[in-house]
Write a structure and sequence with these properties.
Rossmann fold; single chain; globular; alpha/beta; histidinol dehydrogenase activity; Histidinol_DH_CS; amino-acid biosynthesis; 16 helices; NAD; NAD binding
């Protein structure tokens, strides 16, 4: 791996110059055409696109409840147990995120409050192709159901040999209400606008390729979206106490996702930097997804060497990684120094894949530096809040002059008169 020993200021400048890739105008035009076609032709457009892009002729998009049950029954016992352990841990963690409203009656004659309301219908996009991510189904669906979402609609690209059984099993375990075999930008359009078969949803979750991401951007406003997911990232802060083989393995655990993934080590030890670099090369040679991981390591990854622990955290906070491992003695001592990270893994035994699968905290995290202002997916993403106010006549009278004064300062005479119309002469 590339080892950088520049000053902190130089490295911070390089990080600040990083920009998210712009969407290709040709892709935008193609996606816009797909969305408009789905709006105009509904199910027929979906059939045409699935034939064109996935080489599958579909007469029905929705899978039956029995097909989901059969998928769950067909997986081996070890996989089912792993899914159920993950479900239990995800549930126990996310239950603690459930929000409740409040009522405030601190002043005589005044009642104020907030009501937490679940989003009624949510769409979940699950990528298809060679990769299958049943864990991501659990990570989205379980918080949705804990939030009280009434209808959770999952879409996933059709496959000639059928949709991956583990994905369908996870959907059944997590309580997904409907599964439709449609993918790509056309699936996002169907969720946003509805068709004869696919219900219109209120918010769309889940990652996808550049066409899916572009479609999500374009339908935002018609529906809400969770985020625009970028390539996976892992940052590791470590010193000489860390084991090079473990650090290298953790970096490669994310590098194997995508050629654009970003594996980053920040350390105060040039000895560790060299050892990890050597170990990464050694492990790459036996990694099944070597081509993908090697491209990520060579094009996106680096090891930064800085003299002080405070500098290490300053740089990593600027990077704002999706995953952050702290491999330092007494790692919990450093929690206060972490300002920007999607999910934090403390100590040698909290390897990043622990969070991917069974620990319970969500693995759907902000990427591309958006941890500066975004959070992991949680129950709070599947609810909205509304507020309420009630005043008695006496309570309104005490504050009426303040309201009319502010209204007239803003040039809104109608606002002032609406209050004065309630004055009891």
């Amino acid at each position: 791996m590339k080892i950088i020993t520049d000053s902190l200021e130089s490295q911070l400048k390089q990080v600040s110059q990083r920009t998210a890739g712009l969407t290709d105008p040709k892709i935008e035009a193609s996606v816009r055409e797909i969305i408009e076609n789905v709006q105009a032709k509904g199910d027929q457009a979906l059939r045409d696109y699935e034939k064109k892009f996935d080489n599958v002729d579909l007469t029905s998009f929705r899978l039956s409840d029995q097909e989901l049950t059969d998928a769950l029954d067909s997986i081996d016992d070890d996989l089912r147990e792993a899914l159920e352990v993950a479900k239990a841990n995800i549930t126990s963690f996310h239950k603690k995120e459930i929000e409740y409203g409040f009522v405030d009656s601190e002043k005589p004659g005044v009642m104020r409050g907030q009501k937490v309301i679940s989003i009624a219908t949510v769409g979940l996009y699950v990528p298809g192709g060679t990769a299958a991510y049943p864990s991501s189904v659990l990570m989205n669906a379980i918080p949705a159901k804990l939030a009280g979402v009434n209808r959770l609609v999952m879409v996933t690209p059709p496959q000639k040999d059928g949709i991956n059984k583990a994905v369908l099993a996870a959907a059944k375990l997590a309580g997904v209400d409907d599964v439709f075999q449609i993918g790509g930008a056309q699936a996002i359009a169907a969720l946003a606008y509805g068709t004869e078969s696919v219900p219109r949803v209120d918010k769309i979750f889940g990652p996808g390729n550049v066409f899916v991401a572009t479609a999500k951007k374009m339908v935002f406003g018609q529906v809400a979206i969770d985020m625009i997911a970028g390539p996976s990232e892992i940052g590791v802060i470590a010193d000489d106490s860390a084991k090079p083989a473990q650090v290298a393995a953790d970096l490669l655990s994310q590098a194997e996702h995508d050629k654009r993934s970003r594996p980053i080590l920040v350390t105060d030890s040039i000895n560790l930097a060299n050892a990890v670099s050597d170990e990464v090369e050694k492990q790459l040679q036996t990694l099944p997804r070597e081509e993908i991981a090697r491209a990520a390591v060579e094009d996106q990854g680096f090891i930064a060497v800085l003299p002080k622990v405070d500098d290490m955290f300053t740089l990593m906070n600027a990077i704002a990684p999706e995953h952050l491992e702290i491999q330092l003695p007494n790692p919990t001592d450093y929690l206060a120094q972490i300002k920007n990270a999607g999910s934090v893994f403390l100590g040698r035994y909290a390897s990043e894949p622990l969070g991917d699968y069974v620990a319970g905290p969500n693995h759907i995290l902000p990427t591309s530096g958006t941890a500066r202002f975004s959070s992991p997916v949680g129950v709070y993403d599947f609810v909205k809040r509304t507020q309420f106010i009630q005043y008695t006549s006496d309570a309104l009278a005490k504050e009426a002059d303040y309201i009319t004064k502010l209204a007239r300062v803003e040039g809104l005479e109608g606002h002032a008169r609406a209050i004065e119309a309630r004055e009891e002469k």
